[in-house]
Amino acid sequence: MTSRQERLLEVGSLARVEGEGALHLVLDRGRVTEARLNIYEPPRFFEAFLRGRSYTEVPDITARACEMCPVAYQLSACRAIEDAFGVSVGPDVRSLRRLLYCGEWIENHALHIHLLHAPDFLGYPDATELAKDHRAVVARGLALKKTGNDLVELVGGRAIHPVNVRVGGFHRAPPRSELDDFKNRLDDALEAAVLTVRWVAGFEFPDFQTPHALLTLDDPGPKGGARSGGGPRYPIDAGDGVITTAGIGFPLEDFEHFVSETQVAHSTALHARLRGVGTYLTGPLARYNLAGPRLWPVAADAARSAGLGRVERNPFRSVLVRAVELVQAVAEARAIIESYTPPDPPAAAIRPRAGRGYGATEAPRGLLYHRYDLDEQGVITAARIVPPTAQNQAAMEADLRLVAQAGAQLTDAQLTARCEQAIRNYDPCVSCSTHFLRLHRDERRHRHLDPAGS
Amino acid sequence: MSTATETAGAVAAPTLAVWKFASCDGCRPALLDCRDELLAVAGRVRIDSVPEAAGGVAPGPYDLSLVEGSITTPEDAARIRDVRARSRYLVVLGACGSSDGIQALRNYADVADVADGAFQGRVGAAYPSPLYLSTLKYSAPVRDHVKVDYELRGCPVDRGQLLEVITAFLSGRSPAIPDRSVCHECEARGAACVTVTYGAPCLGPVTQAGCGAICPAFHRGCVGCVGSARQARTEAMALLLLAEGCAPDRLLRTLMPANPANPANPADPGHRAPGLAVARTAADEAAGREREEGRREP
């Protein structure tokens, strides 16, 4: 290929740079004494400035928390506010929301698997170098990402900060004709996603078992059960309860009772713990372990042939689960368009009332919880947002300590690479996943991992 | 992390660097979207992506630096000066860097403040209000810290406009970015006017074009992502909307939308806050009437 296309991927590598964070690791005579994930991303006080804003403004505000998962922020917020107002949206709105959310999953997972995480497994410094030897694979990843972007744009009006989401549903329901053309794109994407599962299955995965509890949203599916095509669904855009591997389950309104957050000095993110249990993980691994049987046959088959068992506790294999979820999201998107009926009206009628509401969805990297208190005019009086990376951070650090300990005999360069790879297992959003780390020894024979000063 | 492609023969490739400050990281991906065109138009460009980890600054110099985000910490204030020193041209991308960011909404305080008049006192005064500026101390547009050669606005920026700005700077001409209003884009797109059709208050008439009129095409009023159009007359628009029966509270919220190019923001070049003052007065009057009526009732 020409040098032009090689340069093209240099720009693509910008996607590896988002958020600000670093790993701090200290080894003392071969023993890991400290493993801290520092998050530098400046706090942006979303919960504070949501106060005083009308419920109508919340989807536009919360979307801007993150360019990677604006749909997750918008829909967690909508569900919480609808809960407070006692609004139940119809099946057509729910389907269109799930379609939009599938777009976000496709985009995020395709990016993470191909451009962010694969280089770690295959021994390349970045996606650009990876593309020199595996051009077709990287091109496939970019094409899948574009399909996800285009789907969000089609339903949401814009790939970044979609404009079409409102409390109750959508501002405008796209007519069938607009969505129909996209079916071919999704047919191609399904083929590509299955290939991606097969490709990722060939990676070499370091041996590691996470000891943490796993937590995910429970989506019992549309009311009416199996007759309406319902029954429990793989958790994406909806769910009213939480399930865990720790034998604890609870309705969403009890989330803050069971999950406590503490502030730690070295991070602007908070650390979450599950009451009576301790650290836990949310995200693909949790979804797969707790809701794996709800995957559609096409995704379940891909998982099986990739060697994923019923239980999977190795975070290094979460990249494989992500690939399986990519298949699921593409297949679901295709089916939703096939049976699409434009919601009419596009949004449920909203009558504000004073109260408190809870909402959660499964962002690509894990459960995103929102809670709002609203007055009788529908103005926010209090807001609480618990993002997935905050929930995962304590468990990530504990896992990193174990990974580093197991790799203590590695050279500095090898250990640095292994730790970076481990951080990316969790696809953290404010994010170290994107930084190169530099390992250096000081004279006390300690080793520190700091962000490369380039 | 500094990567480069080969340079073309004896002519050095123009160098482009991309930097992130406080933001959602939503503008830089536009660069990825226009990479093909960029290479076609600008020929061989060397693009350096720069990690934003503390202290991380690639040496440069750069022909063009693209900066996303607002300046919120003393460290970032030092970093942006360093970026400026290493850059021939510095172009700011997006609403965060050009107005100060959604994170600066905290500076507007709660609408509780609006209720007691503090909000009006803070923003309705002559620009720039010293009180207001002091609240901006830790979230400010890039131009408050260093000389900026161009601001490409939007939340996020439009990839077509980004391409135009980059190619203009690399070829030494002024970017051809229209400063007319979103209304022109509605017309071009064939979108129905949401104010006429649905009675929805819309910032389109006072907002600079650039997004392609996405919101009106999705049957909702423009929220002003791109910031003020050059000849914005927000006060006149506010009066017209009130005359047409728009509820004062709805107008107020329309004028304080959920994006960083907030029209109440003095950093927004169009200074649309006079419209906000109109809405504020109307809302006060409406509240006064309500109190009167409440008093009269038994």
UniProtKB/TrEMBL annotation, chain A:
Keywords linked to the UniProt accession: Iron, Magnesium, Metal-binding, Nickel, Oxidoreductase
Pfam families per the UniProt record, alphabetical: NiFeSe_Hases (PF00374)
Residues reported in the UniProt entry to bind Mg(2+): E47, I385, H435
Cofactor(s) of this protein: Fe cation; Ni(2+)
Binding positions (Fe cation): C69, C432
Domain of life: Bacteria
SUPFAM superfamilies with a match to the protein in the record: HydB/Nqo4-like
GO molecular function, one term: nickel cation binding
Binding site for Ni(2+): C66, C69, C429
PANTHER family according to UniProt: COENZYME F420 HYDROGENASE, SUBUNIT ALPHA, CYTOSOLIC NIFE-HYDROGENASE, ALPHA SUBUNIT
The protein, known as: Ni/Fe hydrogenase subunit alpha
TrEMBL record, chain B:
Keyword Oxidoreductase: yes
A Pfam family annotated for this UniProt entry: Oxidored_q6
Biased composition (Low complexity): 257-267
NADH:ubiquinone oxidoreductase-like 20kDa subunit domain boundaries: 24-168
Basic and acidic residues bias (residue ranges): 282-298
Molecular-function GO terms, alphabetical: iron-sulfur cluster binding; oxidoreductase activity
Keywords: Oxidoreductase
Region: Disordered, residue numbers: 257-298
Protein name: NADH:ubiquinone oxidoreductase-like 20kDa subunit domain-containing protein
Species annotation: Actinocrinis puniceicyclus
